[in-house]
Amino acid sequence: MSATLQSYIGGEWRNGVRTGQDISPANPGEVVAEVSMGDAALAATAVEAARAAFPAWRAMAAPARGEILRKAAELLDQRAEAVGRDLTREEGKTLAEGIGETRRAVQILRYFAGQTLEPDGETYPSNSPITFLYARREPIGVVAAITPWNFPIAIPAWKIAPALAYGNTVVWKPAEIVPLTAVHFLQALVDAGLPKGVLNLVLGKGSEVGKVLTTHEAVDAITFTGSNPVGRALQAEAIQHGKKVQLELGGKNPAVVLADANLDHAAEHVARGAFLSAGQKCTATSRVIVEQSVLRDFQDRLVALIEGWKLGDPLDAATRVGPVVSQDQMETVTGYLDAGAKEGGRVLTGGTRATNLGDGYYIQPTVITDLRKDSRVAREEIFGPVAAIIPAQSFDEAVKLANDTPFGLTSSLFTTDLSRALTFANDIHTGVVKINQESAGLEYQVPFGGMKESSSGSREQGKAAREFFTQWKTVYLDPSP
Ligand code: NAD
Fold first, then answer.
1. In this predicted structure, what is the pLDDT of residue 373?
2. Would you identify the CATH topology of the domain 4-249+456-472?
3. Alpha-carbon distances of 193 from 82, 171, 469, rounded to whole Å
4. What is the pTM of this model?
5. Which of 49, 122, 127, 228 has the fewest CB atoms below 10 angstroms from its CB?
6. Nearest CA to ligand 1 atom 31
7. CA-CA distance, 47 to 254, in Å (whole number)?
């Protein structure tokens, strides 16, 4: 790894066209790394390298591909503390979260290494007695993976590991503000023996290199996680160019607290869902719908809990909530807090940038209530440590409010009533439902993805990943007469 972070194309580190800086959100005066930013021409070179490497990678026996992923998992596991620390330095989530996310990437690599030993097709009874009729999953070709900053190693892992395991080659464009974590993940795969050109890393701005990745004739599929406006624009363009596209987008995830719930447990899990990683999870809780009869009681517990959480340096072991990732993100969140005040919102705790923590991008965990129904704070994805409390008169009204959003990523319900739990799981329009658990926090062996505006309808992780990263080939085989 060189002092200035570079792109990695066809097995070589490559300079871009200008230098950028990777800034610490806890201390914006600290430059975590210098970055050589690539342009569209460099991205095209990466696509060509991936195309050239595809035939040999496709031809390699799947279990041999799996062995490389397994070795990369071992290496990343050995490096997890150092990688997690760098992740925290550039992204701002707490050290425990940074190391935990790195270990999640290790588990994902191991899981997809194992998937290379699973059956890759099906046989069918043919209407002809002599025909051996089977269908087999084959790789798609060159996959462009475009990833966000908020899970800078887990999301790349759950895209790149299955793409590689199933025999595709990859061009990866991580979010420009987390290049160091990207280089660490790539390095583990390179050190594990990944052949040249199989995984290519392009460091650069989405607006500069994105178009090549979505339109180049040698790209077969695009897997994207990020914001709705970018994702939908990219989808329209990519489909026009005949690409297979997968999008995982934003959320406005509800947690419903019923009167019969264990309120301490609900408060703990709502706080975790809303404020860990400074609320910057697509699965974060941002609407808390509470049955009126326990509203005051629940609010008091939630506020008391959060006020005991330490906001501060993410490298300090006592910290529960770190900074938001960037100045832009801080301005977006404080903009929503200002809008909330204008929309009649009453702040129960937090409500502003923390001013006692230097220049870091710290926002106090905020609980806000009494918002108008059409309030932007209650309806739009904020992506910060802000939870809106919304009262409901009944279970039925709570479900209706929970579904009253264009998004449909995750949801959670707190109750001791099994019937209501099952009804909620049935009636809620989200791709993931948690009962008596926070809305965030996923396991990697099950499908993940959203409904409605939160996704393109495909699913990631678990065996579901195969759907996107492979295509069927059906073979009719008769003996020669
Ligand atoms: P973003 O849309 O700004 O960026 C995502 C990626 O797209 C980055 O790599 C960025 O550089 C790239 N990009 C930007 N413009 C592009 C263009 N014109 N062409 C191609 N690529 C371009 O999102 P973000 O701020 O990095 O991430 C936060 C968003 O991601 C939130 O909306 C969050 O909900 C969403 N998210 C969703 C999931 C999920 O699984 N559903 C998970 C994590 C984050």
1. 85
2. Aldehyde Dehydrogenase; Chain A, domain 1 (3.40.605)
3. 21, 17, 22
4. 0.98
5. 127
6. 227
7. 40
